Amino acid sequence: MATVIVFTNQKGGVGKTTTSAALISGLLKRGERVLALDLDPQGNLGFSLGMDVEAENTMYDVFMGEIPLEEAIQTEGDLGLIPSNILLSGTEVGMDGEHREVLLKQALESVQDQYDYIVIDTPPALNILTLNAYAAAHHLIIPMASEILSLVGLVQLSETVDAIRETVNPELNVLGILLTRYNKRTRLAQDVSDMAETVAEQIGTEVFKTKIRTGVAVAEAPAHGMSILDYAPRSNPAQDYEAFVEEVLNRIER
Predict the structure, then answer these.
(1) Which of 122, 159, 160, 175 could potentially form a cystine with 139 if both were Cys, beta carbons 3.0 to 4.6 Å apart?
(2) 8 within 8 A of 141, measured Cβ to Cβ
(3) Has residue 191 got a pLDDT over 90?
(4) Chain segment 12-28, per-residue pLDDT in tens
């Protein structure tokens, strides 16, 4: 049965997609079978992995019940991907019914045994797409830029997680908070790290020991359709993400 990992933060620009792509790449390098789901209408995850983002079938078609989830999967080696596009932003209106927050969880049941990990990238919002991801997840990872404003909204996220646990997913676990754009030489980064530790304790999780340093390669990699691990494996961010992948696997095993 696949382990479902969801990257989430209602604030944009914190590195959710970059981190999702890095984890996917790291898992593939370790011989794991991975299904990647892009729940962000911007559709950047597929682009970052070099897959066909103009595909006929997307997450929108799955949510609208037009096709089974399996028919939307693009496959390349051990990687499966279901892309998204701007149509996905219309699901808030199109998805109705008493159990609309578990549509994704139900759709994934048919492929659970075909993959080792399912990695889900979510939009920067707490909407019906994000709630579907939470309902389907085993673990949440919260990327957070090393900025004060990135702390805003984590309390609301915690309340949402509690609500999901009380209803559709009692086993939902927050695996940790990941600090991105980290520069250990600045006082701000240390202050944010300290505050993140406090917030993590409040929501029953931990800050990852690994911090992701800044680097121009992070911005360049998606333009080449590659994760940072494949594009610039010797760069500081890539080395940090390699350590992050190991830390994720160790925490899940623990």
Answers:
(1) 175
(2) yes
(3) no
(4) 888 899 999 999 999 99
